[in-house]
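ingest -> validate -> predict -> emit
validate: passed (alphabet ok, no gaps, 423 aa)
predict: started
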Amino acid sequence: MVENADLFLRLGVALAIGFLIGLQREYAHGGPGREIIAGERTFALFGLAGGLAAMIADQLDSPIAFVGMIFLLGAYSTVAYFIDARKGQVGLTTEVAIVVTISAGAMAYWGYLTLAIAIGIVTTVLLSIKLETDRFARNLTKEDIFAALQLAVISAIILPVLPNQSFLPPPFDVLNPFKIWLMVVFISGISFLGYVAIKVVGPEQGIGITGFLGGLVSSTAVTLSFSERSNREPDLSRPFALAITVAWTVMFARVLIEVGVIYQPLLKLVWIPIAASGLIGLIYCLYLFFSQRTAEKGDIEFSNPFDLGTAIKFGLLYALVLLVSRAAQMYLGDTGLYLSSVISGIADVDAITLSMAELSKTGVVALPKAALAIVLATMSNTAVKGGIALAMGSVALRKPILFAILMMLVVGIGTALLFQVYI
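emit:
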């Protein structure tokens, strides 16, 4: 038996969920001269009705009352839909929202308060981002959909059937097919999410935003694009420097996320120098942002970061970096490990980051050495992208970019070396 206080709480949550969803519907479609089938009060009553129907069903120990309420309100929604359709207003969004509201109200009564509230919030958010989702759908291409299907295939079909063990002697013992492909799925997923974000927001939303979202996909692409563009539009070199620095800063955050997901003990060592470089980049980004604002668009043509060919190439690169790092550590000691990290960082910081995380997780490489190797790789990658910007960018771009490069490298390497002393 539900106590009175608890009962009031559950039905109150059902009422609040309906009011929240109805408020969004009223805001989106209400107003003078506009008629909607249900506003904030009606939706609040729908949520309450769902909770009451669930309560009556419990009291009678029969689902008939709940099913009957759903049927009656479903019939109401059906009639409302046909009325709107006759007016030329074709759409099922509000009607489906009514069903969700009733169901969430019932779940609130049954005690699933957290889940019911989460459903109410998610529903409201989905209803509120219509423009963004419509733009995303319009911007999708056949290749994007095919790439998403490929990502689903390698995640749900190929990965589970790969053997989760190594079959070769050292240094080839690091080549575990399952773990290698798992890293492919992980990195592809991050890049694909960044690409989807650009599709939703649109690359034209601003130079700074493009730099941020582009950093999730490819900070090198952002560097190349804005460096080349600075020669055609030298007056915008400072905003271009902002976008490039933002992309580099996102790269540091991305490294920390990768390490944290793979092996958290390593994150405890590597986060200080990486975060220090990222913090310097963030402070410099704020300085560039407030010193010269611009409404200029930041168009960059980002290709879809995922296709099967790209995934296979990254898998091979990751396996090669794993093998080279293991062999260098076996035959050349720590010097070989650090040298391979610097060289690998020139090509791809993700591969060496994941490799060091995996090697430290399996005990092949000590945690302090793996941490320093990751720092050297990120600094190497930053230096290379900085060199690209300095070589390809305009004269006006070089000064702010050079300062960003020097500050990130000095702080990152200096912090890493200082930190190593105390390990």
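The chain is about 80% helix and 0% strand.
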